[in-house]
Every structure is written in structure tokens, then in C-alpha cells.
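Purpose: get a first structural picture of the assembly so the mutagenesis plan has something to point at.
Setup: two entries, given in the order below. No constraints added.
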Amino acid sequence: MTARPERVVVTGRGVVSSIGIGAAEFAEGLRAGRNEVAPITAFDTTGFAYANGSEVTGFDPAGWITRTPVETLGRASAFAVAAAHMALTEAGLSGEQLRDRPGHIAVGTADGESQDIDALAAETVARGVDAVDPALVERAGTHRLSASIAWELGLEDVAPMTFATACSAGNYAIGDGLDAIRLGDADYALVGGVDAICRRSFASFYRLGIMSPDRCRPFDADRQGILSSEGAGILLLESLTSARARGATIYAEVLGYGLNCDAHHSFAPEEKSIQACMEMALRDAGVRPDEVDLISAHGTGTKSNDETEVRAIKSVYGDRPPPVVSLKSMLGHTMGASSALGAIASSIAITEGFIPPTVNHRTPDPECDINCVPNQSVPADLRIVQNNGFAFGGNNAIVLLGRYEEPQ
Amino acid sequence: MIITAWSAMSPHGTSDTDFAQSAVSGRPLPDGPRPVPDFEPREFLGRQGTRAMSRATALAVATAARLLTEDDDPARTGLVLGTTNGSAQSILDVNRASRLRDKPFLIQPSTIQNAAMNSIAGQTAIWHGLRGPNATLAGGRTTGLSALGYCRRLLLTGRADTILAGAAEELTEARSWVRDDTAPLAEGCAMLRLEPSGPEPSSPGASGLEPSASHGLAEVLAVTSLVVTDGDLGAAVLKAANRVLTRTSTSPDRVWAAIGSGTTDDAESKALAMVCPDATLLPPITESLGHVHSASGPFQLAAVLSHAAASGPADRLALLTSVEPQGIAVAAVLRVKGETIVT
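Result (C-alpha cells, whole complex):
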């Protein structure tokens, strides 16, 4: 690109999570170190020795969704559409105001409309493939996660992208929205990620031996793995020009992102590749490692992830990196939503001036010698935050967010 | 962005020539489900590492192999694949294992791997060592053409030097969840090799009539997506097609050929005939191949390039549209160079 690309800022955020619905409640949850864990109710857990998770409770789609018949939305689409509404509301915009402008909608997911797909599988197992309900097949389409937002908001002139890139998918979506605005393809972008707890995902992680029986304890010597969770995070991105022209409140600037692939192993992360991804993100953002004040880690709470991630961080940041926190200690693993919620948490950390803690922390793992801000949030003046997202399949995506300062 | 090569394994056969010749001659396929004939993963890829692979993964790995060269920098080579719902069959298998046994967690790890929606792209990257951007896009029947827009952004922002883009669909029990009697289910994989076209023109609107890039089979001039908010798919195709032509300053009478996905009754072909009445309307993919779902777009591109290679002068414009019947329409304009690509 020859011309200086548009700067891109966050002007609205929508959150559906187990620790709060809406950015304000989510911020309170992060500051308080909330962590809600209970037996999973989304599917029959008979036969599993344990099945705890962080489900979203108290979510009523009808409270947010006005245009779309709610029964045509699966749980994941309902989360995404509600979060998109919240992002627009926070930005002080409506669908009507965006209708005549070119837009971009990018939503990341690991499992798509997972509960519907599981239901189709269950019907097939029980009664054969001819017994499946065509309406459920229709509702289960993964592309609906992004398209449903457009249908609900009446946005025709948009490119609906659904990134099925597992646990880093939210960062993929943010990155694509950033590029779409930078290149002038779109004036605004609704970007983020979503997933809903489902049997297949739970059983799979359980089988792989990385499902924690009780809590998620990232960077802890006694960690036992991830905890199933769900939710959605959607951000409204717009060009700085557009945000300033309408006098919008700016919650953060998206400084840049990096993405690459391990091409190494389907399940195990790879240190060198993660290091390279961090370097790409920093280069894209024009930021030096010593300018980064906080790293929101992928931090799944598995030995393999946490140790690999810390080593990769140190290979870029040296032996004294900035604080490295794992939101998954509070949120559980929200899969495709996790890095989107991480980006929203990063913007909250910047504007509210605190570092969200790594909760459930008891015994530091000597292999993870970092400041994980154990158990209690701390006040901090943050300018730049790095938000990590890694995934099965080696899909790494890292986003850098910064405090937006009005030019003097 | 330039398409420098394509490759396809289709119900017409495992070679590019099989597809190209059949696309041009209009060779009909038998009724009923349409597998890729003679595709045996072990024969193409060897025994090592193929036992636990899904058929769709094997198709993708084998197709990608034909598009990579020794000079490619693996760290700068990306892979962008479309999908419908990941491997619905593997998801079904995980559920089956988890429901039929008293130990609901006794699932084959290889099935867990294949059931991840990004599994084909991840495994293909591992097989070929591709460390550039690796993405899986779920855009329904329009995913292939939308993926072109994504790849263009990745290339223009310098995130990769080369991207393989396409999709693979396999014939499985779970795929027949989608009951659509308008055409048989078909399996296959089509992929394109994409590279940047060089310096971007200063104004996006001016790109349409710039001289062709010096290499490649075709240049992707623009991609336009549209979400159908009023249920009128035909009007949406019309609008998307007109927009993409306007954006590239292309007069409709300069369009040599148009091809649709064929996923609507006749709304799409009527719209194409209305937009560019003088263009040759190539048979839509559902008619020539069957339902290939997420691979529709890549097969449409391969079909256009096959037709262009078979006849006529260079430097012609082609219009492509794909429709997701639930309400997404995407249109793209290609400048086809028309050099012989299949021998």
C-alpha cells in the first residue's frame, strides 16, 4: 500500500458472557475477577466423571432481537446478533444509519451453530438421516453467524464473513475488519466471535484429557486444563475519520494484527510460529515490544499451551515481559468468542485503567515465570495491549490495541 | 490479484484436463450422487499419514500439491478454504460415539481432529508446510467468491505472497442432511493459486481498464457481496452484478461470459441475462457438476478459465455470481487472459 492506510478505531462493543452481558457488566466482572462455574445443562452429561462449565445464564434473545423471528436463530446466532445490537447501541448508531454505507461483518467461530449441529447428529443416530428436520438444517448453517447480523439490522451492502478458525477466530475477524477499512472496502465493520457450549466440543476436549474438572487455572502448577464456556463479543470498528466526524466515543484503536499457521501439529502449539506471529502483529502495528503494557494471553490453562505461550512471549519480550493475564480463568474457554472477548477486555483495561486478573491462581508454575496478576485486578495506566489467539490446526492470530489519544 | 493457476478433482475425474474438457464439451454426468472417480487417497498421497484423513482433506491435500512450486516460500504461502459446516460427517461420528456408548468420551482422536471446522486447512498446511495465513471460511454457497475478497485483502496488505484458495466437499451420509432435489450431490475440490497483481492503482474505481498484469491466467478485478434483506434473490444478483461492473467501470457489453452458481431456480440466470444480454451464459455449476456447496465458487472459476482457454482471443471479461439461497449474493469480475492452460 502506498497511501497511508486509514486508522481504525473501536466505537462500540457488545458482550454476551458468563460474567456479564453488555460491556458495563462485563467490565465489572473483569474488575471483580468473577468466575461462574456450575454443572453443564446444555446436554446430558451422564457418563462423564465431571462436566462443569461456565454457561451464559439470564440471556433473553427477545430482549435484544427485534426484526428476526427468534426461533429462526440458533443459540450462537442469537448471541452474535444480540452482541451486535449492543455494539451499535454503545456506538450510538442504528441499523438505519449504516444502511447506505458499505460495511463488513466478520464473525469467528469454532463450532458454528453447534447445538443445532449436535441435534442433527442426534436425530441421525436415533432415526436415520431422512428423519432430520429441514428447518434445523437450515438454521444450522455456519454462514448464518455473520449473515444473521445483517438480516437483523437490515444491512444489505455488507460482506458477511464467518471465520471457522476455531479458538483464534475472533482475532481473524477483527483483523479482516481492520484490513477491510484500511483498504477502503468498508466504512465500518462489525467483527468478533461467538460459540455455544455443545456435547461434541466438550466430549472431544474431555477425550483429549484437557478438560478441567472444576476451574481453569492458567499458569498454575496444578492446572488441569480448559473449562467449557460460551458467549459472544462483537466490536464496531470504523475509520478514525468516520468516528471523529460523528463525534463518537473511541474505546481503543486497532493498531494492527498478525496471522500465521504452525503447519506443525493439529493439537499442539508451536513456539517459533507463535513468536513469528507476535513479531508480525507488532510490525503491522508499528509497535516495539517495550511499548506494550499488557498481554492478554491465549492462556487456556493447559500445560502445553501455557508453557509454549510463555516461552514464545519471552523470546519476543525478553525475560521481563509486561504482565500476562488469562481471561479464560474467569470466562472459561469461549472458543471462537475468546479472542473477541479478549479484545473487548483489552479496550476496557485501557479505558478503565486496570489489569483484569488471572483468577483461581494458587501455585505459580515455575515454567511460567511471568506476572499473571494473580486473583485481584490492579489499577494500571495502559497504552498498548497485545491480545493473543491460538487454535487447533495451528491457526494463530494476534491483535494489538492501543489507547486513542486526540492529537494535540 | 492474479489467478496464476487452478486445479480441480471433480466427478469428471481426478485431473485438471478431465474437468476442463468436460466443462467445455458439456459432457453429462450420470444421475445420483457423484463421487470423484478413481480417487484413492493412498494412491495420490501414499500410505503414510492418510489412514485417518477424511476424504475431503485428502482431496484438498492432493489438489494443493499441484499448485505449489519449489520456489514458494512456505512462510509466505497461505491457504484459504471454504466450508459448509466443517466435516458434518466427522461431527456426526463424534456424536455417534458419544451417544451410543456408556462411556461418552470414547472417541477416536483422529475423528476429533477431522470434526474441527478448520481441520482440512490445518492438515493441508501441515502436509505441505504452509505457514502463511491459514483460514477457513463458512459462507454457504457463496463462500468461494467471498474468499476471493478476503484473499485480495491478505495480498494487498502484504500478509502473504501467494495464497491457495478453494474448497473440498466429500460425499457422506451427513451431507445429505441438505435435502435439495434440484441436482445430485457431488464431491470434489477446486483450488486457485492467487498472487498480487503488482502495484495497486491509486483509485480503486480506476482499476478496471488498466493494462493486464504481465502474468497469470486472469485478474480478479473486484468482488462485491450483498446480503438479501427482502428475500428477493434475483434482485440481489442483479444488484450485486451491476455494482461489481460499475466498480470496475466495466460496460456490460464488454462481458464475454457469465456463469452462475445455479443454486436458485432460474432467478440467477435470468438476472445474468438481464445484466449482460450479449454475453455467453455458461451452464451453472449445479447443472454441470451437481451440488458442490462450498466448492461452488472455485469450480465456477475453474469452469470460466477452462472455457477461456479453449477458444477465442485473450483479454476478455467474465462475470461470476454465487448465491446462497438463504440470502447472500456475491459477484466477481475477472479479466481472463485466454492463454491455453490445459493441454
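The CA atoms of residues 18 and 248 of chain A lie 28 Å apart.
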